Amino acid sequence: MSSDAIAQSQLLDEETVQHYNSEQIIGVEELSILNARSNWKGLVQLAGHLTVMGCSGYVWGTNFGNWPVAIPALAIYGFSFASMFAPMHEGGHRTAFANNRLNDVVAWCAGVLSLYNSTFYRRYHKWHHRYTRVPGKDPELTDITPRNLGEYLLVISGLPWWVGKIRGHFRIALGQLDDCPFVPETGRSEVIRSTQLQLAVYAAAIAISIAVGQPWFVLYWLLPLFVGQPILRMILLAEHTGCSLDANMLTNTRTTLTLWPMRLLMWNMSYHAEHHLYQSIPFHALPQAHQQLNSHFTHIDPGYIKVNQNIVAQLGQLEG
């Protein structure tokens, strides 16, 4: 594309640019094949995720004192909890399963486990896709972009995320949604009820833990999620940080090539550029989509550690 064409494309509104980028690559018929959703593949993926969670949780819970075994088990268990963000995200797109009711139920339960509210997140995330990397419109751009090593370590620690999630859930439960333009008036009551129910689940879990005199809530949810969050923060930071700050979907999102265990627990979200270009493609078809699309993307990087090393090296130069 010539420099004049690039300059002209930057004058287009976001949705036009997105349409242009995607329609030029995969045709309608080919895309319809990739778009095929599957209850079976979704359930197998979910079963695999829950198996990792259950086995690592069992090893963690039965090896207190045997720290060379318990600590690695806790790390895996914690990340399997934090990465419940992935089925919540897929269910929110309604691409995890063919059945929309199943998508909604799994997304809500996965959100409870990962401290997200899927009802709120679905609306928030819709705007993120519609206005990806557009300043003033993409709600994700309100998150901290690290400018120095201290801010990077703070973001990776997950502490700002914990504060934001806890404060945000209580504000939403109290109906304070005026600063959430992505939640329409017609959807506010549903978001509020969903968040209130989620907080009630946490309250019940805490009450049961106290009633039986066992620190179950802390040992099997709070601590593991705290341990797993830094890994998830590194992954999510890699998705757009350092990419172009505009609506060009071929340059504003990164795909990160990673190992199979990570792809399993993150439901192939590492193929993030492919997902943003064609959000209708379900998780299980993203590897196939990558084979067809990878030559079109600017940012395809080998591994999350490498991406985060590059982010640290560019601290102070990042736009968002």
Give your account of this protein's structure.
With 320 residues, this protein is mainly α. The protein has one domain. The chain is 65% helix and 2% strand. A two-stranded parallel sheet has the order 1-2. The radius of gyration is 20 Å and the shape is globular. It comes from Mojavia pulchra JT2-VF2. One of its GO terms (molecular function) is sphingolipid delta-4 desaturase activity. It holds the Pfam family FA_desaturase. Keywords: Membrane, Oxidoreductase, Transmembrane, Transmembrane helix.
Q: Which helices and strands occur, and which strands form pairs?
A:
Layout: H1 3-10, H2 14-23, H3 28-34, H4 39-61, H5 67-82, H6 85-93, H7 100-114, H8 118-130, H9 149-157, H10 159-173, H11 185-211, H12 216-240, E1 254-257, H13 260-265, H14 272-277, H15 286-293, E2 299-302, H16 304-313
Parallel strand pairs: 1-2
Helix pairs in contact: 4-5, 5-12, 6-7, 6-8, 10-11, 12-16
Task: Describe the structure concisely.
With 320 residues, this protein is an all-alpha fold. The chain has helices spanning 3-10, 14-23, 28-34, 39-61, 67-82, 85-93, 100-114, 118-130, 149-157, 159-173, 185-211, 216-240, 260-265, 272-277, 286-293, 304-313, and strands spanning 254-257, 299-302.
